[in-house]
TrEMBL record, chain A:
Highest taxon, organism lineage: Bacteria
Signal sequence region: none
UniProt cross-references to Pfam families, sorted A to Z: HupF_HypC (PF01455)
Name this protein carries in UniProt: Hydrogenase expression/formation protein HypC
Family per record: Belongs to the HupF/HypC family.
TrEMBL record, chain B:
Recorded superkingdom: Bacteria
InterPro entries xrefs: Hyd_form_HypD (IPR002780), HypD_1 (IPR042243), HypD_2_sf (IPR042244)
Entry-linked Pfam families: HypD (PF01924)
UniProt keyword list: Iron, Metal-binding
Protein's UniProt name: Hydrogenase maturation factor
Coiled-coil parts of chain: none
Family label: Belongs to the HypD family.
Length: 75, 385
C-alpha cells in the first residue's frame, strides 16, 4: 500500500504532469507535489504521483556506505 | 532497474550480516520493530531474518494501512456502495478486506454494487468527470504517503466544480501509532514487548521527513533509523541500530537519504494541511482508539466529505475472536501463533486484515516464511536424529 518505486522522467508535460518509464513501461504521472522535475531525473512514484525526487549523489553515497559496512569499518 | 537492483546485491547483504554478527554483543539481545509493512514484506521476501544472528530479532509492527482499517469502516463503505446512485472508487488492496459476516467489497460488487478499482485518485476524478450523473466517492485510505494524492484530487475536484465527487476519508498518521504501541495499556496486557529501536518507514518519511521521529528518540529513548525498502537498505539499517544500542545512543538516523530529508516534502504537507484536520480519535484495527491517529476533511469541505454528505455511520463491529491480528500488529505475537493461520485463514480466505494485504505480517509469513520454518524444523529434526 505504501510501496512506491523509482521511475525515470522521460518528458515533462503541461499541468504538472510527466511521462515516466519503469522497466520499459511508460506512464503519465502527476508531478504536482515536487518542484523542478527534470528529464532524465528519477522520482519516487506512488499511486500516480511523484512524492520525492531521488538525489543521485546521496544514492551513490549510500551505496558507498553499504560497501564500507560490508567490509567492516573501524566503528 | 536503476535505484532498485543496486540495493539487492545478495553477496553484499551477507557481508553486512556478518558485520552485524561481529558487532552485536553476544550477551545482550536486540529487538527492533519495523513499523512499516513495506519493510515486513522485504524482510520476509529476501529472508533477511535468516541472515541475522539469534540475538538480533525483528518484530513486525502495524504499519500497513489496510491492516489497521477497522472492520466497521469496511461495512460502512459496503453500505455506501450499495446505494444505487453511488460509484465507489477504491485502491485494489481494499477489495478483499473482510468486513463483518464474511462480506467484502469484491462480494458487494458481485452483488451489483458499482465499485471500481482505481490505481490513482486521478482515475477517480476522471470517472467523476465522465459520469456526471453518478455520485463518485473515493474510498481514501493510507498513511502520510497516500494522503497528499487525496488532497490534490480534492483540490482538482473543487477547481473543476465537480459536484458529484466526494471522499470517504480513512487516512491515518504514523507517529500517533508508534506512540500508541509504546504507551497503550493493551500492550501491557498482551505482554511487554521489548523494543530496542525502530526502523522508520521509507515512503511515509519522504513526505513527513525524519524530524517527527526526534520525539520518540528523545521521549522513549529509542533509536530510529529511517530506511529504504530494498534488502540492502534494511540490513544496513539493522547494523546502524545495533551500533546505536551498543553505544547507548538513541538518535534518529537516515539511511534513505537518497529520497528522505529532515523536513520531508513541505509542498505535500501544505496541501494536506489545506484540506485535512486531525480527528480527536480514530479506531485502528488491532490497536483500538488512537488519539489524534487519523485525519478528516476540514469542515469547509463538508460537501466533499462522504461521511457528511451521505450521513454515513460506522457500525461497531468485532473481529473474529480467534484472530490474533491485534497482538500481531503490536509485535506481541507471531503469525504462526494464531490458531487460524494457514488453516481457516489464508490469503484466499483471509479472516483478519493481516492476511489480506501482501504487506501484512500474516500474508508475508504465509508467502515467504512458512516454508522456511518447515525447512528449519526438518533441519532441527535431522540434527536430533
Ligand atoms: S492468521 Fe488470520 S486470523 Fe490469524 S491473526 Fe493472522 S489474519 Fe488474523
Amino acid at each position: 500500500m505504501c510501496l512506491a518505486i523509482p521511475v525515470q522522467v522521460k518528458e515533462v508535460l503541461p499541468d504538472d504532469m510527466a511521462k515516466v518509464t519503469l522497466g520499459g513501461v511508460s506512464k503519465i504521472i502527476s508531478t504536482a507535489l515536487v518542484d523542478d522535475v527534470k528529464v532524465g531525473g528519477y522520482v519516487v512514484l506512488h499511486v500516480g504521483y511523484a512524492l520525492a525526487k531521488i538525489d543521485p549523489e546521496e544514492a551513490e553515497r549510500t551505496l558507498a556506505l553499504i560497501r564500507e559496512a560490508a567490509i567492516g569499518d573501524a566503528a | 532497474m536503476k535505484y532498485i537492483d543496486e540495493y539487492r546485491d545478495g553477496r553484499l547483504a551477507m557481508d553486512i550480516a556478518r558485520q552485524i554478527v561481529a558487532t552485536a554483543d553476544l550477551v545482550r539481545s536486540y529487538h527492533f520493530m519495523e513499523f512499516c509493512g513495506g519493510h515486513t514484506h522485504a524482510i520476509s521476501r529476501y529472508g533477511l531474518e535468516d541472515l541475522l544472528p539469534p540475538n538480533v530479532r525483528m518484530i513486525h509492527g502495524p504499519g500497513c494501512p489496510v491492516c489497521v482499517l477497522p472492520i466497521g469502516r469496511i461495512d460502512a463503505a459496503i453500505a455506501l456502495a450499495m446505494r444505487p446512485e453511488v460509484t465507489l472508487c477504491t485502491y485494489g488492496d481494499l477489495m478483499r478486506v473482510p468486513g463483518s459476516d464474511g462480506s467484502n467489497l469484491l462480494k458487494a460488487k458481485a452483488a451489483g454494487a458499482d465499485i471500481r478499482m482505481v490505481y490513482s485518485t486521478l482515475d477517480a476524478l476522471r470517472i467523476a468527470e465522465a459520469e456526471p450523473n453518478r455520485d463518485v466517492v473515493f474510498f481514501a485510505i493510507g498513511f502520510e504517503t497516500t494522503t497528499p494524492p487525496t488532497a490534490l484530487a480534492l483540490k482538482a475536484a473543487i477547481a473543476k466544480g465537480l459536484g458529484n465527487f466526494s471522499i470517504f476519508c480513512n487516512h491515518v498518521l504514523t507517529p500517533a501509532a508508534i506512540q500508541n504501541i509504546l504507551e497503550s495499556p493493551d500492550v501491557r496486557k498482551l505482554g511487554t514487548i521489548k523494543i530496542d529501536g525502530f526502523i522508520g518507514p521509507a515512503h511515509v518519511s519522504t513526505v513527513i521527513g525524519t524530524e517527527p521521529y526526534e520525539f520518540f528518540a528523545e521521549e522513549f529513548q529509542k533509536p530510529v533509523v529511517v530506511a529504504g525498502f530494498e534488502p540492502l537498505d534494511v540490513i544496513q539499517a539493522i547494523l546502524m541500530l545495533v551500533r546505536q544500542v551498543n553505544d547507548g545512543r538513541h538518535e534518529v538516523e537516515n539511511q534513505y537519504i537518497r529520497a528522505v530529508t529532515v523536513f520531508g516534502n513541505e509542498k505535500a504537507q501544505a496541501e494536506v494541511a489545506n484540506f485535512f484536520e486531525l480527528r480527536e480519535s480514530f479506531e485502528w484495527r488491532g490497536l483500538g482508539e488512537v488519539p489524534y491517529g487519523a485525519l478528516r476533511l476540514r469542515p469547509q469541505y463538508a460537501t466533499y466529505d462522504a461521511e457528511k454528505r451521505f450521513s454515513m455511520v460506522t457500525p461497531a463491529a468485532k473481529d473474529n475472536p480467534a484472530c490474533e491480528c491485534g497482538a500481531i500488529l503490536r509485535g506481541a505475537r507471531n503469525p504462526a501463533d494464531c490458531k487460524l493461520f494457514g488453516t481457516v485463514c489464508t490469503p484466499d480466505t483471509p479472516m483478519g486484515s493481516c492476511m489480506v494485504s501482501s504487506e501484512g505480517a500474516c500474508a508475508a509469513h504465509w508467502t515467504y516464511g512458512r516454508l522456511r520454518e518447515k525447512a528449519r524444523q526438518a533441519d532441527a529434526g535431522r540434527a536430533v536424529a
